[in-house]
Structures are given as C-alpha cells and as structure tokens.
C-alpha cells in the first residue's frame, strides 16, 4: 500500500481477524449498526431490490461486474453464481493481500475459472481497467473506510458504462445513534456520511441516486451513471 493505512484498512488485512470475518464479525457488526438482523444475504437482496429493473422481466446482462473492495469476496461469488449461465466475468478487487488469499481459496472451493478474477489493486487508481469497462459496480462495507473517497468515486464513474449501475452499502449518520459510537469509529478511520453528502458526491460525477434506504447507521443505495 502506498498511502497511509487507516486502522480499519489495517485490521481488515489481519489474518486472525479475517478467519472469523464472514461468519461472525460481519453479521454481528452490521446488525449492531443496522439495529436489526443484517448479513450478506440481506444486503445483497435489499440492494438488488433498489434497482427498478430487478422488478421487471427485462434485465440487462452485464459482460463484466466489478466487486470493488471485495474483501473475502462474498458479493463477487454471489454475483458469479447468479450470472453463471450468462458468462459474465466478475472482477474482485481489494487492496489487502490477506483478504484476497481467502477469496482465492474460496474461488477454488467454488470451482470458478477465468470468469472470476481476483486482483490486488488500490480502488483510488484503477488504471488496469479502461473507461466504461463495467455495467455494474458493487462496493459494500468499504466506501466509509476509504481515506480518499473522491478518488474512488471518480474511478467508479470512469469505469461505469452509460447507464451503468452502482450498488453500495456504506454507513451514514443517524441522529438517534450514540454519538460516542460514531466518534469511536471515526477515530478508527470510519467516515459516517450524511445522505446529502452522498447525493452531492454522486451528482458531481453524473451518478444519479435512484433509490436509497437506511436501517440505523447502515445505508444502501443504487445509483446510475447518466450522460456526461
Ligand atoms: C469491511 S471490508 C468489506 C469487504 C466486502 N466488500 C464485504 O462487504 O465483506 C472493506 C474492504 O475494503 C478494502 N479497502 C479499503 N480501502 C481500499 C482501497 N483503497 N482499495 C481497495 N480496497 C480497499 C479493505 O481491504 C477491506 O477488504
């Protein structure tokens, strides 16, 4: 990593922590902040439901999907399974090498081939991909812990094709939440957005917020790339 890591980035590359991440840490952490039971499956389905196209029978078939800041790769694997018949290629990208070791082991376990690519790269500068390379980008549990969110959003916009889809789970401020918890997380490198802040950041980049939902401090949104 070239730039200074946040505490969150550091911990998510710790192999002991990562062993318990998928089954224990992730659902407990997410449910605590959402104030209701939440896990990967819930986030995946709730995010998809935010896309109006998912309610119709006319669904686009993406050639390539990016699971950005994929961690251990749960979303990438789910997307691969969902698009198995269509030959969609999933690119699972993360900056942390240890988390990608787990993603790699899982890839083998699932028997995925070339249509599931695992790449160690920084989301701030995804110069390995050409403009308009993806019809879908997923970024879950990560935007709030990235020190240079604007650079990451610039890259997401560049990589999405016209009408390309952005699915995101992140954290937002909630007036009812104990400010001590927010302050502690902020010390660890988490940023809690406001909805307005997200809308502005998206609009500045021709990304239109289509649907948004929030449970406690957990925000899910679906945005679409509009014409320049
Ligand atoms: C909480 S994990 C979420 C992982 C996965 N998307 C999930 O929902 O389980 C956040 C991930 O963001 C990754 N990350 C943080 N900053 C990054 C950056 N600049 N480029 C790529 N990945 C980054 C971390 O390494 C970590 O794996």
| Major pleated sheet | 7 strands, mixed
Helix-strand category: alpha/beta
> Helical residue percent?
25-40%
CA radius of gyration: 17 Å
Q: Give the strand order of the largest sheet, numbering strands 1, 2, ... along the chain.
A: 3-2-1-4-5-7-6
Number of strands: 7
Which CATH C-level class is it?
A: Alpha Beta
CATH topology: Rossmann fold
Please mark out the parts with pLDDT under 50 across 5 or more consecutive residues, or reply none. none
The helix/strand order is HHHHEHEHEEHEHHEE
CATH architecture: 3-Layer(aba) Sandwich
User: What proportion strand?
Assistant: 15-25%
Outline the structure in words.
The chain is an alpha/beta fold. It has one domain: 3-Layer(aba) Sandwich (Rossmann fold). The chain has 9 helices and 7 strands; from the N terminus they run H-H-H-H-E-H-E-H-E-E-H-E-H-H-E-E. It has helices at residues 7-11, 15-19, 21-34, 40-49, 74-82, 97-110, 149-159, 179-187, 195-203, and strands at residues 64-68, 89-94, 116-120, 134-140, 160-171, 207-215, 218-225. The protein has a 7-stranded mixed beta sheet, sandwiched between helices. Helix 6 links the parallel strand 2 (89-94) and strand 3 (116-120). The protein is globular. The model has no long low-confidence stretch (mean pLDDT 92). The structure holds S-adenosylmethionine (SAM). Residues 9, 12-13, 26, 69-71, 74-75, 94-96, 99, 122-124, 140-142, 145-146 line the site of S-adenosylmethionine.
